[in-house]
Design goal:
Layout (H helix, E strand, L loop, with lengths): L9 H24 L10 H22 L9 H15 L2 H18 L5 H18 L8 H13 L7 H18 L5 H6 L4 H18 L30 E8 L2 H14 E9 L2 E8 L2 H11 L1 E9 L14 E7 L2 H9 L3 E4 L8 H10 L4 E5 L6 H13 L3 E4 L5 H9 L7 H13 L2 E7 L4 E3 L2 E3 L4 E5 L2 E6 L2 H13 L5 E7 L4 H14 L4 E8 L5 E5 L1
Parallel strand pairs: 5-6, 5-7, 7-8, 14-15
Antiparallel strand pairs: 1-3, 1-4, 2-3, 9-12, 9-16, 10-11, 12-13, 14-16
Helix pairs in contact: 1-2, 1-3, 1-9, 2-3, 2-4, 3-4, 4-5, 5-6, 5-7, 6-7, 6-9, 7-9, 10-11, 13-14, 15-16, 17-18
């Protein structure tokens, strides 16, 4: 049982996170069942659970790092880890808002752990969440968070952390019960706000963590009858078709511009984070445009696109001609992509294609709909400019921000011209986003890297763009890179060999994967004359 604590120390934060995960696991289905706003997709409880699961994993990682020593993690590190874990693992509208609430609390609790800091942390959390939502609405989790902060603020100056936490919980619970009267869609369905109920659950776990006793839980309204048709979606007829979520590395100024652009593309916009790392959530009809906006703002990754339902994607639209334009680093992959029906643009070593070349390729495709795969992080702005030019000429273009050729191969592999354009872009984006990439390069001079100091002639293994391995030869470095990538899991390894690389290397690496990772398949392609001797992809 949790011990009573007058301060929220590292162990209390760990306990809070663990209890919150357990409680959300028990209430997940009940929260899913009352999810009618902003979209009745029945996943709010699941999204909150997955968000806190990510937070819990980050907290446990901090404690695991101290297991070999005699010290206990400091509270500031643990509360920051909880917030960061929630940020990178946030799911859905509710999970994204919860991540911002935790981030707002962490910013205060990292500086102190007593009752007064808890009061201020709850106030900071509510303010941060309201600011993160483009068009905040009363009767939602935002209202519940504000009520929790206000109730905590009314506690006596000499109240302990347990009393402050309990006041916040009671204030949130009271506000939650009032949400059906504040938001019409909840009132018509006869339910409280699902996200708000999730927050009450998380605050209840906080009470138990600092007091040692779980709060008494009253019955919370749930639908006795099927949700009326007019509550199925906030805007059932014209609501956006897709939920788009991604992590984004970008500056504050770029994110401000991104908010403005995404706000014009769709609704349910929530952008949370800071210090260069953001979690972006939006509902849109044009998923490709939402991702492209992220490309223009910075570096988006962990892209997740969810289709709300086939009936939301203009089912009566006539089929149109579609093409894929792909940038390739070598003649070998050029032939492979052409066989798959793509129009290709060759990126010669040291000569990246200009936007005009990409526009010409889009024109050569003679298609009304085009999917553009730049396959290079350095080409994101060039590709975005080309896409904008093509759109001005009447072509519908979706830019998928592939950063390596192996991601482009993965996207092209799931391309199906027969389905709707949006569904095709979703599938291709998901395939590319699920593919980690690496390449081998030879150091030209001594320099500092993320993996240490390299000397001229060393073989460098770059994973997702950063030097992760320094080796003496290609086979050894390739094996080390594969082991690092597959340590996180994988189902398929793609190897693209450069012009001068012997087939024996591919055979040796295939055997290495087969012996060490029984459930992983390997495919090999010849890339021809390309910059890197070896490209690696792991899906």
């Amino acid at each position: 049982m949790p011990q009573t604590a007058d301060e929220i120390d590292a162990v209390a934060v760990r306990t809070w996170c663990s209890l919150a995960l357990e409680a959300l696991g028990l209430e997940r289905e009940a929260i899913d069942a009352i999810n009618v706003y902003p979209v009745a997709d029945g996943d709010t409880g699941t999204n909150l659970y997955l968000t806190v699961e990510s937070a819990n994993q980050a907290v446990e990682a901090v404690f695991a790092a101290h297991e070999t020593g005699t010290t206990v993690p400091v509270a500031a590190d643990v509360v920051r880890a909880m917030a960061h874990g929630a940020l990178i693992g946030a799911r859905g509208n509710s999970g994204t808002i919860l991540a911002q609430l935790l981030r707002g609390m962490a910013g205060v609790l990292a500086g102190g752990h007593d009752a007064d800091h808890l009061r201020r942390a709850l106030t900071s959390a509510a303010a941060a969440a309201w600011q993160a939502v483009a068009h905040p609405v009363e009767g939602t989790v935002l209202t519940v968070a504000t009520a929790a902060a206000e109730a905590a603020g009314r506690t006596a100056d000499d109240a302990g952390t347990a009393a402050v936490a309990r006041a916040a919980y009671e204030g949130a619970r009271t506000a939650l019960e009032a949400t059906p009267g504040q938001l019409a869609v909840l009132g018509r369905a006869g339910v409280v706000d699902a996200g708000g109920r999730g927050l009450v659950t998380v605050l209840g776990a906080l009470v138990e963590a600092v007091s040692g006793r779980a709060p008494e839980r009253r019955h919370v309204a749930a639908p006795a009858l099927p949700v009326p048709d007019d509550c199925a979606v906030a805007d059932a007829e014209g609501g956006p078709a897709f939920e788009v979520i991604y992590l984004l590395e970008a500056t504050d100024g770029a994110v401000d511009r991104l908010r403005t652009r995404l706000d014009g593309l769709g609704d349910s916009l929530v952008v949370v984070g800071g210090d260069g790392l953001w979690n972006v959530h939006v509902h849109v009809d044009d998923a490709g445009a939402a991702v492209e906006a992220g490309v223009e703002a910075g570096r988006p990754y962990r892209i997740r696109i969810t289709h709300f339902g086939a009936d939301r994607v203009h089912p009566h639209a006539e089929p149109v001609q579609r093409a894929v334009v792909v940038v390739v680093p070598g003649d070998g992959l050029r032939g492979l992509c052409k066989e798959a029906g793509a129009t290709t643009v060759l990126a010669r070593p040291g000569e990246p294609p200009a936007s005009g070349e990409l526009v010409d390729a889009i024109r050569r495709a003679h298609a009304r709909e085009v999917v553009l795969l730049p396959n290079d992080a350095e080409l994101r702005h060039t590709a975005a400019a080309a896409a904008e030019q093509a759109r001005a000429e009447g072509v519908r273009v979706a830019l998928i921000p592939t950063r390596a050729a192996v991601q482009g191969i993965a996207a092209l592999a799931v391309h199906e011209p027969g389905r709707s354009f949006d569904e095709d872009v979703v599938a291709m984006t998901a395939a590319a986003g699920a593919t980690r990439y690496a390449e081998l390069a030879v150091a030209e001079r001594q320099s500092w890297t993320m993996a240490g100091i390299c000397q001229a002639g060393d073989v460098l293994g770059l994973i997702d763009g950063d030097v992760a391995v320094i080796g003496e030869d290609v086979p050894e470095t390739a094996r080390n890179v594969l082991d690092r990538m597959l340590a996180a899991g994988g189902e398929l390894v793609t190897l693209v060999l450069g012009e001068d690389v012997p087939d024996s290397l591919a055979d040796a690496l295939e055997e290495h994967v087969r012996e060490g990772y029984l459930a992983v398949d390997t495919v090999v392609y010849r890339g021809g004359h390309q910059c890197a001797p070896l490209l690696i992809g792991v899906e």
